[in-house]
């Protein structure tokens, strides 16, 4: 089991670290620790043996190699006959060590989730930046089989750190210009191999958080005639990140380099640090399609979920033909100044388990050593 020392937990809570401008991530820290401590917790790596034995790991590795090669051929950087394959045995041996996470209730949906988005693969809608072809494999960690009947929702900020469909003081310059577009937001169904595919951007940075993409996994939803979904349940809410050195190269390109907001590095983001614990890796595996970032990117992530889990994230807005409109009774309304749960980084009231963890932390009156411990 991986735990936060009481000293570190206390130190994190004392910082009132911001999750988005105006809010803090204290509750997310506690929620994440409760997840790590749960006796029935299973990760993607827990399923390694079954996924390798079934041939799924090898099949997905070969599919992803072929997809990257296809993108390179289409962009003029390779010939159809030039596909070079990596030894699949090596891939099987190292499976689950990178770009694999279990996005149990460990992260907040944040104040900028807009529900009612369209089912579509290309979610760029004219936004410019590091174009990324993103493959997300969803795995049921209770059965160790791919989830073939889910919808993956994806959203993130644009290259200059602004979320579309929302107007808020902490969202870029707070202008109304982003409310009328649904760029960089959408849903995709998982296929027979558990894969959902998007065309999006590497997200830009904004005050208080490291660059990240948000995701929500829907189960049992019904596709509507207007190409949206309704009903069903949400099992998990999570966030994906980008390796810092590679991200620095992205940030040096246009239009990322015009972003005037203060950047938070991965090492300074408590939710990122917690996401790296417990044998999980929420960092996307990214490959260049061409010779430079501007030529496009291919990214992958394996996500472990428990389809029977039920979470209740809260949208701030609903997407309509007129753009983003306020969701009734949203606890995020008025963010970051007057929202109902601005003080709770996760946007939800504290749970009984949160209170128990707070009590455990407060029992240590003299925290001295700030470190992670493996037990």
Automatic annotation (TrEMBL):
Organism of this sequence: Lophiostoma macrostomum CBS 122681
Domain of life per record: Eukaryota
Sequence segments annotated as region (Disordered): 349-375
GO molecular function: iron ion binding; oxidoreductase activity, acting on single donors with incorporation of molecular oxygen, incorporation of two atoms of oxygen
Keyword list, A-Z: Dioxygenase, Oxidoreductase, Signal
Protein name in UniProt: Aromatic compound dioxygenase
InterPro entries: Intradiol_dOase_core (IPR015889)
Positions with biased composition (Acidic residues): 357-375
